[in-house]
C-alpha cells in the first residue's frame, strides 16, 4: 500500500486527487494538507467526501509528512513546493508537484514569467517533466521529483508534439487558441470568478503574457531541436466547470492529407491508453472526455491556405492535473500506468 | 462473468449503465440494443466510449438476446418492456426494467396515468419494486423481474419513507416540490429541450398530473398501511445536466427536534452505504452526489408552523436510474451491493 | 428632468437601475455612489456601460447628495439606509430603499430576523411598502420613503395576494417553495458563489430562517386581517443568472375550478400592465420574463388533495429590484407607471 | 409609421427583431410570418410576447405581404428569400434579408459553399452588403435589397477591417478563431443542440468548411484590393445562449505598438455609435455587450512573434442579426441610425 500525502488538498485539483485515489486499489491517503482549512474535517470542506473521508485537514509541514508517506502531491500556488523541499525530504519521499516550480528547465524564464524568485533551483535539473506519453522512460523508481504539467500545456503539447517532431509543420508559425472551463481558475474567492461574472460570457485573458507559454515553447522546442522557439498561446475562459479545448494552427511544411496526419499521430499514440486519435473528420469535444484521463485529438488539413488545424480536448482536472499526477505516481512505483484511471468519461 | 444485454443502450440512462458496467469487474456487456442507431457503432453515438466499446448497436430482439445473456436491462419508453417479455424469456434471463411498466402494482392506475394498455399484467405481481434500501430482501437470485424506480420516485421515497413509516408526519399533508436537471428529459430531439430553451430558465411542469405521483403514493402508502394515500408532487426543470433535489413538506404529528428526526433517519439508513444522512443544519446539494450512487438527506423542523421540511438529493442518472439498476443486479447475482458503484462523487 | 442619485450603484441591482434609467427619457443620473470603487470610473467596474456612463464612483454622503438630486435609490446592505437618513434629507429628497430597512412595520421583527439594531425606527411608519400593484394609492408625490420589496417577496406576495384576500385558500397552510438565480446573492467575493460551486448544482438554503419570511407574512397578513400569520418559505439556489420562480401551495377553502381561480386573479390584475395572468394550464417560466418588469402567474387546482398550486415568475433584478424601484419612482413623480419599463422580455 | 413584415418570425432572430421593433417608436409590425406555426398565436410560440403581441402567425406569401408593408425582414433558411423575390415585389417594398442569399457577390462561390442553386442571381449586384459601419453610404432610400451580414462575419469583419485596410497586417496570414453561443444554431429540434449535449462542453465545427469563410474573405478582400484572399475561419460552439467572440491572428507588416493599433481603430470607429474600441490591455467579453447592438474590440501586439492579436465581441442576435437589420432599416428610411437600438447591455 502506497502511503500518500497531499499538500493543497482543498483546492479543486487536490479534491480531484482524492477522488481518483479513493478508487485506486494500491493507495492510502494519510495526510490531507490545507493551510486554509487546517483542523477542519476534510469532508466539511468537500461534502462529496462525506462518509468517504474522515480525516481532518493538516498543515503543510513537509518534513514531518516525509516521515509518514511514500509520495507527496503538491497542489499548491507557485513557489510553495520549491520553498519546502530539501535533500532530507527528497531522500525519503517522492514529490509530484502540480505547480509550475519544476516545469521550466531555465530558471531565468521561470523567474521572468512567474515574477517570483525560485527557492530551489538546484533541483530543477533532476526534476522530470511528467508528461508520461513523452517522458515515460525518465519516470522511474529512481525519480525524486516529477514536475506535473498543467492543463493548457498538456493539451497543447500532446496535440502539437508529433507534428513538430516529424516536421510536418513550421514551428515558427504555431498559434494556439485555447479554451478552458472555469475550474482551472481555482477556488479562490474572486469577483471575476463568481457565477454571474462567468456564466453566459466568454473572454480571452493573459493575452501575450500567459505563463504556460514558455513551458509549451520549451517542450516543443525539444521536439524540433530549437531552444528559441516562440509561439502564440491565447487562453480563453468559458462558462463550464471542466474541460480544455485547444485549437492550434500552423503552416504545413509538407503536402499531406488528413490520412497522412492521422498516420503520424498514430505512430506516436496508437499504443497510448490515454490518447485517442479521432477518425478523420471528427472534432474533439470536451464532453466526451469529462471525468476521465483521456485526451482526444483531431486534425484537419486546410489546403486553401496550406495550413494544418490541430485540436485537442481533455478534462483539465484529470489529464490536466490530478489524473496525470496519478499516472506519474503509477510510473514511479512500477504500477500499471492506468491503475485507478480506467474511468470511462461521464456524459452528460 | 455476468453477461449483460441492454435494450435502449443509446438513451442517457443506457449510456450510464454502460459507463458503470465498464468499471464493474464481474460483468461483460454483450448486447447494445438501440432501435434508433441499429448497425451503427455504439462509440459513434456516444463518443465518450471511443476505444472503450467496439460493439455495434443491435435491435431489441429479446428472444434472441435471452439466449445470450444472464440479465437484460431495459432502458426504454413506457410499454416496450411489457410488450417484449414472456415466460420463455423470463425463464432464461433476469429483467431489470428501468421503465415504469412494472412499478405500479395496480394496473388500472398504470393505464390511467400512462394512458397505454399494459401488455403483460400477469407479471406485475411477481415484479419486485427495486428500491434496494427498502425491498432488499425481495431482490434475490429467484427474482425474475425488477422494476427499477425512477429518479423522482427514488429521491422522494427515500426522503419520506422513514418519517411516514414511523408516523412522525401526517401523510395526508405531504407536498413534494422536486427539481431536476435536464438529462431526465431524455435524448429525444424536442424544441423544449434545446439548450437555449432550458438554459437560464426554470419552470414547473406536469403540475398535478406527473406520472411519478401514483408510484410515490403507492410506496409511501405501504409504509403507513394506506391504499388511498394522496399527495402533491410538483416537478421542475432546472438548467443543469444531472441532479434531482426534492424538498418535501408535511405536518408533524409529534413534537420533535432536528436531533429526533436524525435519529429516525439513522435508524433506517445508518448502515446503508448509499444513503448519507447529513448532520443537523446541513442541506443536501446535488453537486455533492454527482456521478455517484449516493442519496444525501437533510431535514429541518419548522416549529413556527409545526411542520417538517425534508430534503433529498441524488444524481438522476446514477441512483435515479443506472446506478440503482446495477445495485439491483448485484443483489440478483449475490454480489456485494456496492460492487462497481464505489465511485466518489465528482466535483466540480 | 428628474435628477437621480444611487447609493450602491456597483452592486448588481445598482447596475440594473443604471441600465433601466439610461432608457428613461425623464431622468438623469448624477451620482453613482459606491464605497468599494470610490474614485474609479463606473464603466471600469461595469464595462457594459463603456461609452454610456462617463462618471466616476462617489461616496455615500447622503447629506451632500440630497442637495443635488430629486430622488435617491439605496441599493445597499441592510442597515445602511436607516443609518444615513434624517429629517433634513427627507425634506429635500425622496428615498427609494431597495434594502429591507423600511419594509417591516414591526421593528422588533426586523431586529430579530436581521440581527441588527434599527437606526431610524421613527421613519418606519411613514415609509410605504412599495409593491405598486397593491399599494399604488399610497405612493404619491407626498411620499418620502418607499421601501422597495425584494425579489422573493414580490413574487410570493403577488402570487398569493388575491387568493388570500378573497379567501380561496387557508392562509395557515401556505408553503412557498422559491427558486432563484444567482444574481440575487450579490457581487460579493465568496467561495459559495463561485462559478464552479453554483454551476451544475442546486440547494435549499436558509431553511426555516430566511429573512424574507416575516415580510411575506406581514403583507399577506394585511390581506386576510391577521397579524399572526405564519407560513413556510424555502428559498433555493439555481445555476442561472436571473429569475425567481415561486411554487406555492395551500389548502383550498372553497370548491373552485381553474377558471374560478383565473377569474380571481383577473379581478386584481387584469388592468395591471406588469402582471400577466397566464391561461389555464400554462406554467410560468423565468425565460419569458427575463430583462423585463413582468410577473407571470400560473395556477392549478389539485382536486385529489383539495389544494391550490400557485406559481409566479419574474426577473429578480427587474421586477424584483431595479424595475420595481423605477416603477415606484414613476409613481412618486406622477409619471406613467411603465415609463422606461416597456422593455419586452429578452429570449433566449 | 413604417409597416413591417417578418418572414421567419418564429426563429430566434425573428423573435429578436420583434423584441427590438416593439421598442422602436416609428415602426409597426403587421405580419408575423412562420411556416411552422401558421395560424397559431405568436405569443403562444414565444411567450415572452404574451400581452405584447396579439397577432397570429401568417404564411410567407411575399406577394401579398408586399402590398401591406413598407419593408420585409426575411429571417429564413438559405435559399428561401431568393426564391420569393421578384421585380414586382421589389418595386413595392424593401427587403432586408438576414439569410446569406445576397451576401456573396460571386454566385459561383455561393452555390459551391451553400450547395444550392441561387434562384435570383439577377439581384445580387444591386443588393447592398449591410454592414453599416463600412457600407453606410450605399444603404439609402433607393436601396431595394440589403443583405444583412451574419454574426460571425460581422464580428470578424469589423475586427479585422481597419487592420487590413491600413495594411498593418499581412492578409494572407489571417487566422480567425471564433466562439459562439448556441442561439446561433437556431431553434430546430436536433439532438446536437439539446441542453445536455451542449452544456458543459465545447467543440470546433465546420472546420475548414464553414460557409461564412468566403463572405469574410470577400469583404476583407475589398479592403485590401484582393479577389483571391484566403484565410482560416474556425467556429466553435460554447455553452451559453448569446455571444460571439472572435480572436483573430495575423502577421504584422509594420512595427507598431498597442497605441498605434488603437489609433488605427479609432480612425475608423471613433464616431461609430455601435463600435467600442477598448482601451489598451482590455479584452472584450461577451457579457458586456449582451442584449445590445454594440461590438467591443480589443487588440494586443505580440512582439515576440511579430503578430497582432485582434478580438471582437458582440451579441449574435442583436448586432449579429436583428439589431443590425434594424440599423439597416433605419438607414433605408432616413431615421437616426440608432433609433430603437440605444439599449444598454444587460448584465449579468
TrEMBL record, chains A, B, C, D:
InterPro entries per the UniProt record, alphabetical: AGPR, AGPR_AS, AGPR_dimerisation_dom, AGPR_type-1, NAD(P)-bd_dom_sf, Semialdehyde_DH_NAD-bd
Pfam families documented for this protein: Semialdhyde_dh, Semialdhyde_dhC_1
KW Membrane (keyword) present: no
Keyword Cytoplasm: yes
SMART domains: Semialdhyde_dh
Chief localisation class: cytoplasm
Domain Semialdehyde dehydrogenase NAD-binding per the UniProt entry, residue ranges: 3-142
Record keywords: Amino-acid biosynthesis, Arginine biosynthesis, Cytoplasm, NADP, Oxidoreductase
Active site per database record: 151
Enzyme Commission code(s) on record: 1.2.1.38
Catalytic activity annotation: N-acetyl-L-glutamate 5-semialdehyde + phosphate + NADP(+) = N-acetyl-L-glutamyl 5-phosphate + NADPH + H(+)
The protein's annotated pathway: Amino-acid biosynthesis; L-arginine biosynthesis; N(2)-acetyl-L-ornithine from L-glutamate: step 3/4
Protein's cellular compartments: Cytoplasm
Transmembrane segments: none
Domain of life: Bacteria
Gene Ontology MF terms: N-acetyl-gamma-glutamyl-phosphate reductase activity
Family classification: Belongs to the NAGSA dehydrogenase family. Type 1 subfamily.
PANTHER family, per database record: N-ACETYL-GAMMA-GLUTAMYL-PHOSPHATE REDUCTASE, CHLOROPLASTIC-RELATED, N-ACETYL-GAMMA-GLUTAMYL-PHOSPHATE REDUCTASE, CHLOROPLASTIC-RELATED-RELATED
The protein's role, per its UniProt record: Catalyzes the NADPH-dependent reduction of N-acetyl-5-glutamyl phosphate to yield N-acetyl-L-glutamate 5-semialdehyde.
Name recorded for this polypeptide: N-acetyl-gamma-glutamyl-phosphate reductase
Organism of provenance: Lachnospira intestinalis
